[in-house]
Amino acid sequence: xxxxxxxxxxxxxxxxxxxxxxxxxxxxxxxxxxxxxxxxxxxxxxxxxxxxxxxxxxxxxxxxxxxxxxxxxxxxxxxxxxxxxxxxxxxxxxxxxxxxxxxxxxxxxxxxxxxxxxxxxxxxxxxxxxxxxxxxxxxxxxxxxxxxxxxxxxxxxxxxxxxxxxxxxxxxxxxxxxxxxxxxxxxxxxxxxxxxxxxxxxxxxxxxxxxxxxxxxxxxxxxxxxxxxxxxxxxxxxxxxxxxxxxxxxxxxxxxxxxxxxxxxxxxxxxxxxxxxxxxxxxxxxxxxxxxxx
Length: 294
Description:
about 20% strand; about 35% helix; TIM Barrel; alpha/beta
């Protein structure tokens, strides 16, 4: 069983965020074609894939990405998209029309100067325009905030208030040690326990979806707030392996961005492997990675 599959459809990004780990595969030799992406995803379904998240780089930079997403969704697959938001206003209506399950938008700060220091671009206006567009067309929306010491840890309550206005859920994400700069991680890493204590004291625990792992969920001020830790744990304290990633050039990785490639499914597909043989490669990758099933 592969609970979650992250599929990078484009390696490039128009931002240069200091903490970005670039999905562990920054410079692919080639990008998969639409047909290759579709067939590799379809081959993963019999291996137990429950949901697919489309990522980048910045996925909305990919040419004709809406057509690709529509092809995947038409197969009855639960598809969400994660984006930096800068191009979301261009495509929000189309994403709603093709019945995208959810769009996740990175929003680390509500202060333009902080954002520019963090990602190297004055992008606040375009990001907020995208978020408003998603809200206005009724696209299910989640805001994703990487919490960082000395950067935005003082904004968490303000961000919850903004999420309420946008009718969005909010996810606080622990800074990953896989960030491109080890120095940045050492300076700015902060755990999520202090925020979780506040959520426990002042909010409502959502018992139906609460696990002793990385995705504890609460409701505060009417907003569903989840916590994503960089080293998720099972109830027995072991590392929880949540799913697999397909890189923009067809390689399979675990969710640990420092991990080496498990299999090259792009090469396998180009070599003529199809059908059940391709599915078995997905099964092999999940077995190597020892994905947690709870």
